[in-house]
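Re: [ENG-882] Designed sequences occasionally contain unexpected residues at chain ends

Forwarding the minimal case from QA. Structure tokens:
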């Protein structure tokens, strides 16, 4: 399927009006789930069409699709990696309450995010530097490529009227903790860390945002006790996902590189910051085709243009909240739990994960 950037932006910015609705929560393995039918009704996406383990629901240009027992999930054609696999409950497929609130809701309705601050500053973080060269290719090293991208991006952002801060402006080593300290000096800001990937036969683009509390990092071998630690960046879970969506969509649509999806991790630079942030991986330097592309100045300029577009799209997407909160520190999204019922003999849980209100209508 071919997309255009305006096509995806139009979908990303769809606003919703409200009517009364209920969620029915099912407990599976100690975790709350909602059925796809419940999801489709709430977001007015029509009937759930299922073919064996695959499903899709769509109305007009809005769509959700995925596969049972998989974390791969597509919203309006863009790939996301859920925290938990799609699960079958009483013959129906269901998505976790965590993924409903932390992925689907902020992507489909970014204008509903509460606590989103007015954005006037962008902190650009060029990965690696100095003695840390990062990933290597026959055409150069990651540290040089990331610095070139952020310099190009700074010029575009400044022309657009943003204040821009670089965590490093030359080939020097800056510790991860120092990078977060730089970011935390600013409010009304976004943090974007630029990297390039390496490893095996990998190819394509991926974007990382902070894993919500209690969710395993996709870069870890499995669940850890530390997954339940509250990180500074978790106060902006919804904003993080909206920024990741805007960034990843712009990169994928314009570059047409393989879409590896939006993923969750606890990298220090997105874990310990108090402003919304993402980390992007702009291709694999270990893949000859990707490496050739990254080595081209035109591709790095395109990445810079994508980052500019993403910041402007994010600002537009959450814009309806800005007038209410500009100038004060975000307390993070807070939404009241709507009426819900549990299936017989099943109790609800996950008290820190509240589910959205005011479903969508055409």
């Amino acid at each position: 399927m071919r997309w255009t950037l305006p096509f995806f932006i139009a979908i990303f910015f769809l606003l919703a009006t409200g009517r009364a609705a209920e969620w029915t929560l099912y407990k599976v393995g100690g975790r709350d789930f909602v059925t796809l039918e419940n999801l489709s009704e709430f977001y007015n996406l029509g009937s759930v069409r299922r073919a064996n383990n695959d499903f899709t629901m769509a109305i007009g240009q809005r769509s959700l699709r995925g596969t049972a027992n998989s974390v791969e999930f597509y919203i309006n054609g863009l790939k996301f990696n859920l925290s938990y696999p799609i699960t079958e409950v009483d013959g129906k497929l269901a998505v976790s309450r965590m993924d409903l609130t932390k992925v689907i809701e902020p992507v489909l309705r970014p204008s509903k995010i509460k606590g989103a601050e007015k954005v006037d500053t962008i902190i650009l973080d060029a990965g690696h530097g100095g003695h840390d060269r990062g990933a290597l290719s026959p055409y150069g090293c990651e540290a040089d490529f990331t610095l070139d991208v952020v310099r190009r991006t700074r010029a575009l952002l400044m022309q657009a009227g943003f204040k821009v801060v670089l965590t490093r402006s030359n080939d020097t080593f800056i510790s991860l903790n120092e990078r977060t300290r730089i970011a935390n000096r600013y409010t009304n800001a976004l943090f974007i860390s630029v990297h390039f990937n390496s490893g095996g036969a990998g190819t394509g683009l991926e974007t990382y945002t902070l894993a919500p509390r209690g969710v395993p990092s996709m870069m870890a071998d499995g669940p850890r006790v530390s997954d339940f630690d509250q990180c500074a960046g978790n106060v902006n879970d919804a904003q993080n996902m909206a920024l990741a969506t805007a960034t990843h969509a712009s990169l994928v649509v314009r570059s047409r590189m393989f879409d590896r999806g939006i993923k969750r991790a606890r990298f220090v630079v997105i874990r310990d910051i108090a402003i919304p942030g993402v980390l992007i991986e702009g291709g694999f330097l270990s893949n000859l085709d990707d490496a050739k592309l990254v080595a081209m100045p035109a591709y790095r300029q395109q990445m810079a243009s994508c980052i500019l577009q993403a910041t402007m799209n994010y600002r537009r997407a959450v814009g309806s909240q800005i007038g209410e909160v500009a100038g004060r520190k975000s307390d993070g999204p807070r939404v009241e739990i709507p009426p819900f019922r549990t299936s017989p003999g099943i109790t609800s849980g996950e008290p820190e994960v509240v589910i959205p209100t005011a479903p969508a209508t055409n």
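QA comment: On inspection the terminal residues look reasonable. DSSP finds ten helices and 18 strands in the chain. Proposing we downgrade this to a documentation issue.
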